[in-house]
Write a structure and sequence with these properties.
single chain, Alpha-Beta Plaits, globular, alpha+beta, ten-stranded mixed beta sheet, 24% helix
Length: 240
């Protein structure tokens, strides 16, 4: 039986979602629990990887069990054994052709920034940004990023393909908290954090809109812009 789970986790004490040798990961914690339930090893397939310190409200993953167990019982059994910084919020039965990564139609990420006074209690969950932002420039920067582009200058590591489509970027500021929401299908390593860093560079006057445009239009002209830290990033929702 193949199951699709929705996972919420506080990424503060993880080295990311993906299993790593001798490092604490979300994948490893879930697989340890499933091994007990299934009485043999279970490998989960995530919809995407989140890096060290990144959080999730709606990560998705699928796995196969040799036993047929009702969804409600499986949900309770998993949550009773998982550590307090991971929670399974939903379980669905899916057919054997379904794949948590390859079946994705859209992902939503959010990035949260504290523009107010530094608060130590927010440090693991917000980027505490102590610079004046020009919201007009920030809006112009986000408009450049929307659409289909080659995002090579915004991705860490080598890939065969850097093309991606950003459907929308939504800016919301309330009580000195700036939330940037990204909607798209494919997000590669550090891509959201690099986009946020570039937008903030433009909004603070550190870089120009022309420099940002050049990074999108000509991947051979490599310009270095800021990369926003991991703790402000959340994988919010995945659609199939």
């Amino acid at each position: 039986m193949r199951y699709l789970v929705t996972i919420s986790y506080d990424g503060s004490n993880f080295f990311g979602f993906q299993r790593l040798k001798n490092k604490r990961s979300v994948q490893d914690e879930i697989e340890k629990v499933l091994k007990i339930i299934n009485k043999k090893k279970v490998e989960i397939k995530g919809a995407g990887r989140t890096d060290k310190g990144v959080h999730a409200y709606g990560q998705r993953a699928h796995f196969d069990l040799d036993i047929d167990i009702p969804k409600d019982r499986l949900l309770k059994a998993m949550n009773d054994s998982l550590p307090n910084d991971i929670r399974i919020t939903n379980i669905e039965e899916v057919d054997n052709e379904f794949h948590a990564r390859f079946s994705v139609k859209k992902k939503i990420y959010q990035y949260k920034i504290n523009l107010g006074e530094y608060d130590p209690l927010l440090n693991n969950y917000y980027y505490q940004f102590d610079y004046k932002i020009d919201m007009n420039k920030l809006n112009k920067a986000k408009e450049l990023l929307i659409g289909e582009h080659n995002f090579k200058n915004f991705v860490s590591g080598e890939r065969d393909n850097y093309d991606a489509v950003i459907y929308d970027i939504i800016l919301e500021e309330k009580k000195k908290i700036l939330t940037i929401t990204f909607e798209g299908k494919s997000f590669y390593r550090y891509m959201v954090r690099n986009m946020v860093g570039a937008m903030l560079d433009v909004a603070t006057g550190k870089q120009t809109l022309d420099s940002l445009r050049e990074m999108l239009d000509n991947v051979k002209v490599v310009k270095q812009m800021s990369c926003a830290p991991a703790q402000g990033l959340y994988l919010l929702k995945i659609y199939y």
